[in-house]
Design a protein that fits this description.
Order of helices and strands: EHEHEHEH
Strand content: 15-25%
Low-confidence stretches: none
Distance between the termini: 41 Å
Radius of gyration: 15 Å
Shape: globular
Structural class: alpha/beta
Strand order of the largest sheet: 3-2-1-4
């Protein structure tokens, strides 16, 4: 049995979509016809997203800024799908990781 689902016309938000896995995920949604929103904190990466996916809406935003994030998300209206891909890597031992590091 195979599964088939179309994202055509569906509103999809991908966080951390400027590169890597997030970019690849965003591109798949875009190719399937989704109404795509991509958030990243690096404008130069979002410029690359726009050149590859010209109809995508890009939003330059640091998700650590809760008020700005809430405002941007509210402006988008209801979404059909969210890929919460944004994250950071901290190169330290788990024993050296602070609560502040973990919250990022």
């Amino acid at each position: 049995m195979s599964l088939s689902y179309s994202f055509k016309g569906r509103k999809v938000l991908v966080t951390g979509g400027g590169r890597g896995i997030g970019f690849t995920i965003a591109k798949k949604f875009y190719e399937d016809g989704a109404i795509l929103y991509v958030i990243d904190k690096d404008q130069s990466l979002l410029d690359d997203v726009k050149s590859t996916m010209p109809n995508a809406t890009t939003i330059c935003l640091d998700l650590l800024n809760w008020d700005a994030t809430r405002g941007e998300i509210m402006e988008l209206g209801p979404l059909d799908h969210l890929v919460n891909n944004a994250g950071i890597g901290i190169a330290s031992s788990i024993f050296d990781t602070t609560e502040s590091d973990f919250d990022k």
